[in-house]
Amino acid sequence: MMPSQQSSVTVGQPWQRAIRTLLGLLLRRPLVGVCVIPILPDGSVVLMRRRDTGLWCFPGGLIDWGEDVATAAQRELTEETNLTIMQVGRLVGVYSSPQRDPRFHSICVTIEAFVTGIPQANDPKEALAVQSFSWTDVETLPLDHDHAQHVQDYLAHRIVVL
């Protein structure tokens, strides 16, 4: 075969291997998100009721490319609840069990945040309701994902890596 007749791209070219490797790295890794435990000035905590499951959860979501945890926390909190972080509190935990979210493997960095504003459901596609609760009431609510564990760890003043 003459050189001009050879395919310019053959299986196993370095660029093809690089693309396969990159796709494997991107698609076979857990997603990283943030959950916010928003504390209002009166000491109550804000949760949102998910449209897809009807269960209560802490506001949060995936961290976008180029964002840090604090920026993602503020963005997600505002998008979902109309609240503003006045001060980031403590790290509650890093939750990484492959079973924590039934949709996909995700890692959740959960933080406490002291917030201001009037809670409201800003995204009707995601939230049926946004409401403040006392901690006694939160412990009786049906919570989504592993958020009951987040509540237990928060109230016990633990910082966990699970």
Brief summary of the model shown:
The protein has 162 residues and is an alpha/beta fold. It has helices spanning 14-27, 69-81, 135-138, 147-155, and strands at 31-39, 45-50, 56-57, 60-62, 84-95, 106-116, 127-133, 160-161.
Can you describe what's shown?
The chain is an alpha/beta fold and 162 residues long. 25% of the residues lie in helices and 32% in strands. It has one domain: Nucleoside Triphosphate Pyrophosphohydrolase (Alpha-Beta Complex). A hairpin with a 5-residue loop joins strand 2 (45-50) and strand 3 (56-57). The termini are far apart.
Descriptors for this entry?
162 residues; alpha/beta; three-stranded antiparallel beta sheet; 4 helices; 8 strands; Nucleoside Triphosphate Pyrophosphohydrolase; elongated; single chain; five-stranded mixed beta sheet
Question: Strand order of the main beta sheet, please?
Answer: 4-1-6-5-8
Shape, per Cα inertia axes: elongated
**H/E order of the elements?**
HEEEEHEEEHHE
| Number of H/I helices | 4
Secondary-structure class: alpha/beta
Q: Biggest β-sheet, characterized?
A: 5 strands, mixed
Q: Over all CA atoms, what is the radius of gyration?
A: 21 Å
The name of the CATH topology is: Nucleoside Triphosphate Pyrophosphohydrolase
Mean pLDDT: 89
In terms of per-residue confidence, which ranges show pLDDT below 50 for 5 or more consecutive residues? none
CATH architecture: Alpha-Beta Complex
Query: Helix share of residues?
Result: 10-25%
Provide the CATH top-level class.
Alpha Beta
Beta content: 25-35%
- Terminus-to-terminus distance: 59 Å
CATH homologous superfamily identity: Nucleoside Triphosphate Pyrophosphohydrolase
What is the total tally of β strands? Answer: 8
Structural domain tally: 1
